[in-house]
# Entry
Amino acid sequence: MEPAVTVIDLNQLRRSCGSCALHELCLPAGIGIDDLERLDATVKNKRMLDRGAVLYRDDDRFDALYVVRSGSLKTFVQNESGDVQILAFHLPGEIIGFDALASSRHVSQAEALERSSVCELPYAGLQQIASEVPALHQQLMRVISREVVEEHRHLMMMGRQQAQEQLAIFLRSLSDRYLRLQRDGSALNLSMSRYDIANYLGLVVETVSRLFSRMEEMGVLEVNRKSVRIRRQDLLAELCNSGSSASKLYRAG
# Structure
């Protein structure tokens, strides 16, 4: 009879910043205590980032993945003319830095949206453990796959003709991510500016501000600056246009 795998309650793991990093990688994977401790040992001490501080820049050498421990970050690209396109927003418990896997150089820049902390997970150490622990390798592939789905969703949102639908899909996606991270999916803290949201969705900031006001008047949201409470998830789902290909992609993620 095979020995049972011991699954750790990661909320009780109080070593360094491992509980944050390991939550995303190991909680769904059922990794045993010995392998979990090996992975935890590879996590370097957390790094503190003030608002606007850069975690990595375009063309920086790739050495590690990063797990957001607290706060939030945005990743973006910038052309030679200085034009910026925001690619993603990253919440506590999420992993960033996958953009460098192909070339071993980052192709985007990561910047803190507020005072934040990250855990550094050296990629060489992660690869070594993943090669020996199939459950960890499988979960890492799931996380990478989900990042690809998020990129596709972003492209779909930018291609929608209705700005209200774009914003609704964005908010519903954030709600889904909150739930996955065991947070209240109805109480969103939008650490990013309205300008950042507009840039991410390919809209103008005036349109985004007007849409927030309209959705509040409709009873969908309750907005207090950066705090947004979703009052009617059913109405928000309707605004996402459940028959569209974008919403199908949302459900697939």
In short: The chain has nine helices and eleven strands. Residues 1-22, 24-29, 242-253 have pLDDT under 50 and may be disordered. The CA atoms of residues 109 and 179 lie 27 Å apart. The radius of gyration is 19 Å.
